[in-house]
Amino acid sequence: MPSPKVALAAAALLLSSAAHAAFSIDTDDNIKSTAKTLAFDLMSYYDGNETGYTIGILPGPPPDGDYYWWEAGAMWGAMMDYWHYTGDATYNDVVMQAMQAQTGEDNDYQPKNWTASLGNDDQGFWGMSAMLAAELNFPNPSEDKPQWLALAQAVWNTQADPERHDDTCGGGLRWQIPLSNNGYNYKNSIANGCFFNLGARLARYLDNDTYAEYAEETYDWMNTVGFIDEDYNIYDGGHVEYNCTDINKAQFSYNVGVFAQGVAFMYNYTDGGSKWKTALDGLVANALDVFFPENIAYEVACEGQASCTTDMLSFKGYVHRWLAQITQIAPYTADTILPVLETSAAAGLATCIGGDLQRACGFAWHNQTFDATGAGQQMDVLSAVSALLVESADPPVTNSTGGTSTGDYNAGTDSTSSKTSSEITAGDKAGAAILTIIVLGSATGVFGWMSWGN
Ligand SMILES: *[C@@H]1O[C@H](CO)[C@@H](O)[C@H](O)[C@H]1NC(C)=O
Ligand SMILES: *[C@@H]1O[C@H](CO)[C@@H](O)[C@H](O)[C@H]1NC(C)=O
Ligand SMILES: *[C@@H]1O[C@H](CO)[C@@H](O)[C@H](O)[C@H]1NC(C)=O
Ligand SMILES: *[C@@H]1O[C@H](CO)[C@@H](O)[C@H](O)[C@H]1NC(C)=O
Ligand SMILES: *[C@@H]1O[C@H](CO)[C@@H](O)[C@H](O)[C@H]1NC(C)=O
Ligand SMILES: *[C@@H]1O[C@H](CO)[C@@H](O)[C@H](O)[C@H]1NC(C)=O
Ligand SMILES: *[C@@H]1O[C@H](CO)[C@@H](O)[C@H](O)[C@H]1NC(C)=O
């Protein structure tokens, strides 16, 4: 008798029969050729090496285009995974050029250009893609260029700096880096999640306990402050004026995803340590329960209300990629995770019937219809489909299991601090990173209340 999950997968595949004729995921070869088309369509959003545009970024940031700076950093990670899973190196040169073009003046992914919308999470997404390059043995840059591992260390070093961990809320990173940015008074899960994730991965890659100690401190703080609750729900964040007790209870899939992946690295690094196994079980169960109803990815905080921002439209893809990688470094999770990812990927692919070519992907995976497309929607389905090949892919390497990227423990430590205020243009202000609306909404509430009180 098939397990309920297998039966559901079959049902989803039946529903998918309306999919674009050229798309199929029934064999590894078909997954590869489907992913190739999805990758081509995703890359059509990138105009960075056309005259007059900026190398490395997607059109933006608003109002110059739809996409904030961080999303390209995330996309290059998705393209690295695409290469790793399918073997298609078509875009590796573009990815290399883009990842190098945005390292910034101090090679720590804090380019002055984007200071006015620079959050720890924005920097963190670029840092996690650099880390992934090291873990996948993505081609190394020439020796005169910053190396992947050193770039990841630079991001981690700037974020581990005591200057970024003030005592409000008992610790933790703020959302924004410069104090003049909207959201500097907010401490949130994604900023701390990226730092935690990077630390856990650096610990495993370099077999260095310092990174693990910081990661554990961040994880424990997340629990103390209540951003992670006893059921492993992860909430968005809280304001320093309230010592972070005004918790915004919105749950976004990338929060549980980024912590689950980091916890899996800690689990692996500690050779199956029970603290991390318990946490991994809880986070994986939460991710699948909350964000995969009927085993199909669903962005619960915004999708039902049709209120997903451009940022949020890209979260499903990260969660697919991260959950897939968890099955490599914590193999006991594979039986739980992989059937869900298969059902969900099939549903996502079934939305790819839009646009002129009738193959643009949408976001309504739950009912498998095309709604609207964009780089996020394309990246989500590309990520879900390529990660179906995870079982035949190599796990992430370390410095002692074949990793060739060169590190630098001091990378980023003499960076010019971007904490000092910078000139903010109207455009930049609108461009504060993730969850702008929610945070501005509640920040306005806070300040409104405070001035009424005075
Ligand atoms: C910085 O922004 C300017 C104008 O938007 C652009 O021309 C330039 O290429 C950008 N530099 C980098 C490194 O992104
Ligand atoms: C961008 O540059 C890469 C590598 O140099 C090249 O392969 C690609 O065709 C270029 N893309 C566009 C849109 O010009
Ligand atoms: C602020 O929050 C932290 C973390 O929850 C807690 O340890 C600390 O006691 C709180 N401080 C005050 C003054 O309530
Ligand atoms: C750690 O990851 C490796 C793959 O790199 C895997 O073979 C090993 O089983 C993992 N360790 C544990 C405790 O699951
Ligand atoms: C599918 O769900 C989306 C919202 O996610 C909704 O806008 C659309 O009308 C639904 N389509 C059908 C055919 O039910
Ligand atoms: C990484 O491995 C190389 C040999 O493969 C070794 O020379 C180097 O010291 C290692 N780096 C660290 C930080 O352990
Ligand atoms: C471990 O990492 C820390 C943090 O970067 C560094 O200061 C330390 O020197 C490293 N330890 C070893 C033994 O390389």
From TrEMBL:
Keywords of the record: Glycoprotein, Glycosidase, Hydrolase, Membrane, Signal, Transmembrane, Transmembrane helix
Protein family: Belongs to the glycosyl hydrolase 76 family.
EC class of the enzyme, as a word: hydrolase
Domain of life (superkingdom): Eukaryota
Catalyses which reaction(s): Random hydrolysis of (1->6)-alpha-D-mannosidic linkages in unbranched (1->6)-mannans
Keyword hit for Transmembrane: yes
GO CC terms, sorted: endomembrane system
Keyword Transmembrane helix carried by entry: yes
Region (Disordered): 395-423
Protein name, UniProt field: Mannan endo-1,6-alpha-mannosidase
Entry EC number(s): 3.2.1.101
GO biological process, one term: fungal-type cell wall biogenesis
Matching InterPro entries: 6-hairpin_glycosidase_sf, Glyco_hydro_76, Mannan-1_6-alpha_mannosidase
Compositional bias ranges of the Polar residues kind: 397-423
Cell location: Endomembrane system
GO molecular function, one term: mannan endo-1,6-alpha-mannosidase activity
Membrane-spanning intervals of the chain: 430-452
Signal sequence, start to end: 1-21
